[in-house]
Amino acid sequence: MDGSIDLLDASSALDLNNIRYQLIRLEDTIIFHLIERVQFPLNPTIYTPNAIHIPNHTGSFLDWILHQQERIHAQVRRYQAPDEYAFFPSDLPEPILAPLQWPVLLHPNTVNGNQKLKESYINHILPAACSTTAADDHGETRENYGSTAVSDVACLQALSRRIHFGKFVAEAKFREDPEKYAKMIRARDEEGLERAITNEAVEKQVLKRLELKAKTYGTDPMAEKEGAKGGAAAPKINVEAVVAMYKDYVIPQTKEIEIEYLLQRLDGLEEEEPKAKQRQPDPHGQRKRDIRRAGIVGENRRQNGQA
């Protein structure tokens, strides 16, 4: 978990300025991880179920490594943090460390966009970013399948954190204008919610910043001097692929997370309101009962000669 935002402080964690700063930091993390990943071939074999034999496992090599790493990280509380979401949440061991006392930052929800993210990463993001193709996969004995998959895990976990931070954005915006959002949530107005959470100017800024970062991080700082001596060094990453990753997948899937979260934001609350109203004392009814009780007592006293 990145320490730039204090998730133990609810006011800090749900401040939109702090959230935006965290998202900017995650851009750096994602680009650097992707630069590490594209130094290896595409290696589609590691994404194909049963292409590599693993005892007691029927999925892909990537799924096996990702699952094993999640099991280890779960034991040191990673997935108890409100900004971390596992790809295999139903099969994680309990932590060996004592739980932290996290504040309640988000409304209880079941939103997890990791499976769609993983499919987009394997089928679209990687093929665009990698300079090699499936034909460059020469088999288990010649390629760095292990290193490739470990790099994939780092990329996927950073991307997962990024899109699920959409929940924090959605919660912060909901708290700014709960009546506005509650009306759209009750109407299941997904288009209205999307319009409310979208800021096209900010999205354009994000894409421009990503382009600049990808160019900067993907270029050897000595390349300009060496290029003058003959031949510019090739960039470490496809800048257009990085921008397209955000434009076509990261930003849209973050919005989907936000909308799905908001659609569950009132769950449980609407059911409790009628019950709360039933539990509230009726002052007029209580007064009638008091008057009736006083009348009964007075009548009993008269009958007993105590009037």
Automatic annotation (TrEMBL):
PANTHER family: CHORISMATE MUTASE (PTHR21145). Pathway: Metabolic intermediate biosynthesis; prephenate biosynthesis; prephenate from chorismate: step 1/1. The keyword DNA-binding does not apply. It is an enzyme of class 5 (isomerase). NCBIfam families: CM_pl-yst (TIGR01802). It is found in: Cytoplasm. This is Chorismate mutase. PROSITE patterns: CHORISMATE_MUT_3 (PS51169). One of its GO terms (molecular function) is chorismate mutase activity. It catalyses: chorismate = prephenate. One of its GO terms (biological process) is L-phenylalanine biosynthetic process. Its main location: cytoplasm. Keywords: Amino-acid biosynthesis, Aromatic amino acid biosynthesis, Cytoplasm, Isomerase, Phenylalanine biosynthesis, Tyrosine biosynthesis. Residues 147-258 form the Chorismate mutase domain. Its EC number is 5.4.99.5.
